Amino acid sequence: MRSKTLAAIAASTLALLLTACGGGGGGIGGTGAAGNGTLRVSMTDAPSCGFDEVNVTVTEVRVNPSATAPDGTGAGWFRIVLPNPQKTNLLDLQNGVLQELGEIPLPAGTYQQMRLVLASNTGATLANSLVLTGGTGAEVALDTPSGQQSGLKINTTADITVLPGQRVDWVIDFDACKSVVRRGNSGRYNLKPVLTAFPRVTDAGLRIVGWVDPSLLAGPVSVSAQQGNGVVVKATAPVGPGLPDAGRFELPGLAAGSYNLVISAAGRVTAVITDVPVAAISPTQVNSAALPIDLPAAANAGRTVAGTVTTTLPPPLAGEVRAIQTLAGPRTIELRWTAIDADTGAWTMALPTGATYTLPYAALPVAWPFAPDAASAGRYRLEARDGSGTVKSADIDVNVAVPAFPAALTQDFSFLP
């Protein structure tokens, strides 16, 4: 996975012409200048799975005071229109790097709906595409939703409140990993955008910062802040090798609270720093560049678990399967996640047979005495979700001898009535 410096991204960002269209602001404040505030929108990304590039071209951002307003550009919609849309590699937007999309004056009030509009793939130049890791380097078209012209609905963490004479900043988190869905053996991929919007943090705090050892950067690395039942609140990939601050990671936009910091790297055990505090006053710096997080080598590549999700929903399918694990504490974390095949419902993942390592948080530690959580080694709960949001689960132990270890295990999920 590639990552660029903030300076490189900023140099490629054009000045944007902003246009407000659609309905007025009746009932949500005055329409004159005295009753206006400003909404500024930018975009960021979480780590991607198995891609060197995931490219999208944004043409508009739309907001509406009504959560139930129909799609489109009619009454009540306000639009940030990008006159010169630029194709953006989402993998460049990690560790706090943002792509500015623009800003717009709005009548003061509360806005409950936000939508993102993408360009269509037309002609020889692909507006939305990916480049597979280990492939030929050629761009592969991403088939985008038919409803993209009316805007892709974004899940917001709260209502967007615009105050008179003030600017409010929001960030659209475009999760590249969870937005790309394979379609059987056709060589085609669907873009099923997973979008979340949250307030842009301008305080020094409400973020976790740290470094991983450069030796981990030879393969994919993921760092995530998790809470509750293994809910990934924010994830990123550290800055790549050969770049300034290689190994550094930053997880911005977190609410104040306590998090489990989960670090996964190819060929290494998974490690968890537990109860990492986040506050508004200052960043939570889990370590320094002089003491990067290093992980022991994994004993093997893990055991493959595969299956099929069967549902009454028609293709293209949009389900997922994740593997969560309960550690001492108890604490539950998500170790793996995969989308199901959009055509067949098939899925596969490799789960560690060895223990997950843990370490309680300590401000700027002097060593990394991670300890294995031996009791939970190889034991997982698989949770499958179909396109309707229904969840089914199954417990699995990847160290069982039947079928003969280390043959693949099968776990199917049926959502049929």
TrEMBL record:
The keyword Amino-acid biosynthesis does not apply. Transmembrane segments: none annotated. Residues 1-20 form the signal peptide. PROSITE patterns: PROKAR_LIPOPROTEIN. Keywords: Signal. It holds the Pfam family DUF4382. Residues 36-193 form the DUF4382 domain. This is DUF4382 domain-containing protein. The keyword Cell wall biogenesis/degradation does not apply. The lineage of its organism: Bacteria, Pseudomonadati, Pseudomonadota, Betaproteobacteria, Burkholderiales.
